[in-house]
Amino acid sequence: MKIRLRNLLLGLGAMLALAAPAAAQPAPTTITPALIEAAKKEGKVVWYTAVDVKVAEQLAKAFEAKFPGVKVQVERSGAERVFQRIGQEYASNIAAVDVVDSSDAAHFVYWKREGWLQPVVPEDVAKHYAPAYKDPGGLFAAWRINLSVIAYNTQQVKPEEAPKSFADLLDPKWAGKIVKAHPGYSGTILTSTFQISRDIGWSFFEKLAQQRIMQVQSSVDPPNKVASGERAVMADGNEYNVALLKAQKAPIELVYPAEGTPLVIGPAGVMKRAPNQNAAKLFYTWLFTVEGQQYLIDIGSLRSAHPGIKVPAGQKPLSEIKLMKDDAEAVDKQAEEIKARYTRLFKT
Amino acid sequence: MTAETIVTPSAARRARILGGFDASLLVLSAAAVLLVLLIGLPVGWLFYYALTDRTGAPTLANFVALASDPALREPMLTTLTLCFCVAIAAPAVASPLAWLVARTDLPARRTIRALMTASFVTPPFLGAIAWEILAAPNSGILNQLWRGLTGSPDPLLDIYSLPGLVFVISCYTAPFAFVLVSNALDRIPADLEDAAGILGAGRWRTVLTITVPLVVPAILAGALIAFLQAMTLFGSPAILALPAGFHTITTKIFALFQFPPKPQLAAAAALPLLVVTVVLLMVQSRLLGRRGYTVVSGKSGDPRLIRLGAFRIPALLLVLAILALPLFLPYTALLKAAISTYPGAPFVPEAMTLKHLRFVFLEFSQTQKAFWNTVVLALSTATLGTLLALFISYLTARRAIPGSKTLEFLATAPVAIPGIVLGVGLFLAYARPPLALYGTLWILLLAFLTIELPAAFQQLRSSFRAVHPELEEASRILGAGRLKTLARITAPLLKSGVVAAWCFVFIGVVRELSAAIMLFTSDTKVLSVVIYDLNESGDLGAIAVLGTAMLLITFAVVGFANWITGVGSGVRLRGG
User: Fold this and answer.
1) Rounded CA gap, A310 and A2, in Å?
2) Domain at A2-6+30-146+264-315: CATH code
3) Given CB atoms, is B432 within the 8 Å cutoff of chain A?
């Protein structure tokens, strides 16, 4: 994120200067009675999201309880499908989506380039978020932080035998026992595939493809497959789903790979053509408040860029984990090549 | 396809008389325009895209890529293998079953028909998900039982494989063959079998020489439908083939629409399917075209049942064992998933929960809307589709107007178009002014009408064929007009066929995923899409609850339709 923003600032410096009034950080949005009233008149907000559907629905319920009269319509699918859908709808002149988030930060690079986002800066983002976690033009901000981790089934694998690194996954003993998600459907996996291929090299995936892996779509799914015992180990998948399953006493344990854990920053933003402008601003602003972010952490076991958030007990702080670097610009440029290369290797 | 056989001298005479009819041309053009809008438009777009490049310049490069790129060629070969296996497996199981139910004194025949309907109502993608729970190589319930019993480290079944996919698709296409064959068996009049008996043939010889030849067309039709279903289904392969590491042509087409979309390649990949289907339909027509199958005429006797004797109970057990595959086992698995805390949780009280029920009916904001959209679309498609099919099948079966062969082809053509491709075609056709229908339920209605028309048309055409024109002619000779004859003679004879067609379409719409997945927007989501989205992230509990609710609703509607029209007591799918 840091690299990307530096590039952005350098590259877009001239443009920012030219379009100064429009592109400058807009005044922060606060939740005022007037905004709430206006949102109530609209009655609903349509939220396209890639977060786990149960987490999304519970967040929506919490919001509806706080602001009665404003319904949240949750539209959940994998980030890459959300992206495809918005493209398809906008190409047909259908503006249905108000607020969107993605686990593939590159989508926001694309939407920004297309001019589909509008600048909205929630008060909390303006006051508390580090520059690395927000767009300088105020078009989006890091709504959630997720890690793609390795995990294993504790009934099938002893802790001392569990893989400690990506390299360990290439051990022949794991052949036929690994599940992994697909970069063509999941933004998290597209991002992690990019980071792993950059830091470790494509040779890792070439060898992994020889391990007879079980291929699923969303990064939500591998933890399910490990918990159910369908596969002993997952090569990638959401840290937060592993945590949620552990909380339900499922036999699953996570591993932060020695080479570094792929870091997936999931931004959110408001569409310029949002049909429910005020409800969109209200919901979006609320998502970044301490309350909204804390829900995300407490319900969803996710991570937040808000410094005012308490890290829940049992969650290892980000500062203690070796992380891979996020680079949305590069993902935006390479997405098509990554997907094509992946498809060639894994034949799916 | 066997329309030639209808041309009796009286039919030809009638055609001549009607040839001078002014209205007929008008009627034909109206029907033709409608069908062209429904079918010609998306197919036209398909050809256009397959033969152009990104800039719109004509090219054959898409077909070159199709033949040379193994990532495109392999799915094609896989799909063909899949289709042939399903086309053999589905009728091979369904035909004996249909014979047992229709022509023998097997106990609980009515219940078995109803159960067969239930497996018909089950969407293949839901069946695939249920079979994942049962036969995933490690966590599958059946495999765990097997390991527990034998101590073997290897799984008994692996659903994530081509045979696994063949099995699941066969489970849910066999009911098509069953309905076709059992209806054909119902229609065979006793006179023919009696004649064989009088001439000295034994019971089994009669079955072999009279009954079987008369249902061969139905068995072939069943094989054809199974083949086409296997070719065009999207849900089951999407669920089972991806984990297994291969693509079928429909999942490949879907993948080609991932960003950045490649509609040209997708269209080119769809055209071979169209060609294969047309060839198959021609072969079927060649095989059956010589014979006539008009068996319901002025005089008819009820078919006689064959006594199974000592085989009654073993036969019943066999039938129940077969029904366990599409029905008892999967729904047990789904019910277990519906109350388990996490996938694969042990079946103990501590690991049971109502949270999935609560989630689906109280928290999940999609549930209500999806149910509503699905029911509205299914009801309206079933009603409009049946009317349209009735109209076209009357025109074609009675050759009331010239050009009916073309109509017949148009009404059958959509079977050849995978829903996912049709979805793309409709999207391209109706996403722009003047008919900007994308984003409304109308575009889904159009898609479903097109997809379901062939099923309704085939059903009603065979009903019309089975009613000999001599009955209508008798009415006309006695002074009744055309309309009065239709109302008094034809309609009552067709009633059960009409109800069956309506139910076919209703169920078909509820099962439909492949076109809906291309055409839905947030306000026009249907249940199948919601379930697909949930499956993407492996939310088995919610899927199980939604799927079971969906089955109950479909069953209730189909049962009600049969009851209100007095066609059958209890849920039954059968034709004239």
Assistant:
1) 23
2) 3.40.190.10
3) yes
